[in-house]
Amino acid sequence: MNNRWLRAVSELKNHAPFTLLGAVIGILCMVLLKDLPRPVNTHLFNIFHPAHVLLSALVTASLFRMRKGRTSLITILLVGYLGSIGVATLSDCIVPFWGESILGVSIPAHAHEEEHDEEHHEDEIAPDSPVEPLSHKPELHLGFIEEWYIVNPLALAGILLAWFIPHQRLHTKLPHALHVLISTWASSFHILANLHAEFTVTLALGCFIVLFIAVWLPCCISDIVFPILCVGEGKVPSCCSFHKQTHNEHEDSV
Fold first, then answer.
1. One digit per residue, pLDDT tens: the chain, 254 residues?
2. Is the pTM of this model over 0.90?
């Protein structure tokens, strides 16, 4: 168990610089696309979040199967589903929701519809009529519940790909890199879809911190820590061949 925890910590450390780069790319996307209509940002989130789930399920199940060896499809399904749906929800939904709450910059999802209706009925409201102001308390979005017919099948598809296609072909740096990048975009568009404040330098810095946390911990937990803790001792996986030499040196020193 100690060896697995040491490897997990080592992987988190190794992936911090790459996640830092992903957060920078996310902020650049937010700066370039901050003037897009909110519905467009919502649609983009609804594209990148399911794609994140698909890649997360693929990488998690593939990594687990490669190092675990002979195991049942039920076990692969459980590990892949929990490691993708749970962590993608944390990365794309819960952490951005938390960040928006702390930064105080979000508008609730139901306010989008009310805002749209108000544009059409503004002239019909009498000047002295009491109008209840919209609350700016953020509303948590859970993709695997609200878009269950898209998110859950994609998680299953990623797991089945890892099961039926030889896992050696899937266990490369590319799926994990795409996973991190798409997760960054999903988190970015979640924030943009709910953003009602001006995108200042201070806000960009706050969003950068939120993006880094939203991508670094959840994605590494999904692709690295979760499979590491699920496999047996002596089968601790390396998430990508880039770190193989580092891990070998660490094992020699233990």
1. 566 667 667 767 777 787 888 889 899 989 998 888 988 988 999 999 999 999 888 888 887 887 776 788 899 899 899 888 988 898 898 999 888 888 877 654 444 444 444 444 444 444 454 444 444 455 677 889 888 999 999 999 999 998 888 666 665 566 667 777 888 999 999 888 888 788 888 889 999 999 998 888 776 666 666 666 666 555 544 554 434 444 444 444 44
2. no
Amino acid in the structure at residue 157: A
CA separation, residue 21 to residues 26, 27, 221 (Å):
9, 10, 18
CB 116: neighbour CB atoms within 10 A?
11
Secondary structure (3-state) at 229: helix
Q: What is the largest CA-CA distance in the chain?
A: 78
C-beta atoms surrounding 210 within 10 Å: 24
Number of H helices, E strands in the chain: 13, 0
Quickly list DSSP for 112-152: HHHHHHHHHHGGGS-TTS--PPPP-------HHHHTHHHHH
Domain segments of the chain as ranges: 2-34+44-120+136-253
CB-based burial, 128-141: b 16+ in 10 Å, e otherwise: eeeeeeeeeebeeb
